[in-house]
Amino acid sequence: MTKYMGLIVIAASLLWGCSTESDSAAKLEQSSKEWVDLLSPEQSPRWVSVGSTALNPAWKIQDGVLALTKAGGGDVTTGVTYGNFELSLEWNISKGGNSGIFFMANPNTQQVPVWTSALEMQILDDVHHSDNKTAFTRAGSSYGLYETRDGVAKPYGEWNAVRIFVKDGKVEHWLNGVKVVAFDTRSEDFKARVANSKFNDYADVFAQSSRGLVVLQDHQDPVQFRNIKIRDLD
Question: Are 116 and 199 in contact (CB under 8 A)?
Fold first, then answer.
């Protein structure tokens, strides 16, 4: 093998080992169902505050953007449950802001706080919020359970692209085209992490729903979402 051929093989190997959205195991599970635009004017059911049949006025939907304009709006959901799915959206957090994308939330979650039953992809201003001290709570992490990769999230005021895959217990978080988290909710590793976290107090409901709600969080800080789309992988 020539020196130049060797360099080509090494380069190809490095590229093969890199994670891209096209090589996601979950993405390879092709769905016969179309993407559903959750902010389409024709979309039904509409976004509502958790535990309500209406959207709190603190949340606004305008020009294709769902925005929490001030604290007190509560978490929001469409009320539709999903088992295996692919979720795509963009978020834009305020300076020093904190929010989250909950999924697999117990359908009866209005009876308890959403975070006690749902997995969460963290949304954060990694520069100015105090949760930036650990990769387990920075943007893209599975909050409190699986650490994210540093340097992937864009700063406050800029749009960050998210993809979340859930397939037969396997979960992937993608942020701005990079896979930052991957885990299996049926693994012993996952069970051990839950047991050593604040979620252990809710182990009977936390991540136990085979089908659950997608919920966007009100963490008291303004946040915007757009291009919210989902497709069923069942």
Answer: yes
Instruction: For residue range 111-147, list pLDDT tens digits in order.
Output: 579 999 999 999 999 999 999 999 999 999 999 999 9
For residues 161 and 178, give the distance between their C-alpha atoms in angstroms, rounded to a whole number. Answer: 10
- CA dihedral sign, ordered 102, 98, 90, 25: negative
116: helix, strand or coil: helix
Domains of the chain are 3-232 (2.60.120.560)
Residue 50 CB burial class (10 angstroms; 0-12, 13-18, ≥19): buried
198/53 Cα distance (integer angstroms): 30
Hey, how many other C-beta atoms are within 10 angstroms of the C-beta on 220?
A: 13
d(Cα 132, Cα 215) in Å, to the nearest integer? Answer: 23
Q: Which residues of 5-16 are buried (b: 16+ CB within 10 A; e: fewer)?
A: eeeeeeeeeeee
d(C-alpha 207, C-alpha 35), whole Å? 24
